[in-house]
Amino acid sequence: MDPARRAAGGGGNRRDPLRADAARIRNTLLAAAFELFAEQGSETSNAQVAARAGVAKGTVFGHFPHEALPAAVVSGEVDRLVTATGRLPKGGSPGAHTVRRRSLLPWSDHRRRRERHRE
Question: What's the pTM value of the predicted model, to 2 decimals?
């Protein structure tokens, strides 16, 4: 799989899945980036992400070319919110269901369509 597709959230692609170790490293990078973005904002560097994840800077670029890392972090968080709000009881939180239906699902669906189009 080309790095851009992998950075956009690929890796679940049946034709070219990430190896288990590559998927583990990718997830470690995403977690480190999420923490650093929360602590320092968008000025976080790939070198800082690499240091937090305990890998070489080139590893970050291998998984997330150019500016793909922030987009991958945001995509992962939106997917997590879609899943979490989908588990809410139907009558429990109408506001959360409205946010899911109007904001999260359309964004997530758009991203998935773009990924399928690239394949």
Answer: 0.66
| Residue 95's pLDDT band (cuts 50, 70, 90) | confident
In the chain, the domains with their CATH numbers are: 3-118 (1.10.357.10)
Helix pair 68-86, 20-40: axis angle to 10 deg: 90
* Cα–Cα dist 20/79, whole Å: 21
Handedness of CA 107, 108, 111, 117 (dihedral sign): negative
Q: Tokens standing for 36?
A: 């650093």
| 43's tokens | 């000025």
Longest Cα–Cα distance of the chain, Å, equals 48
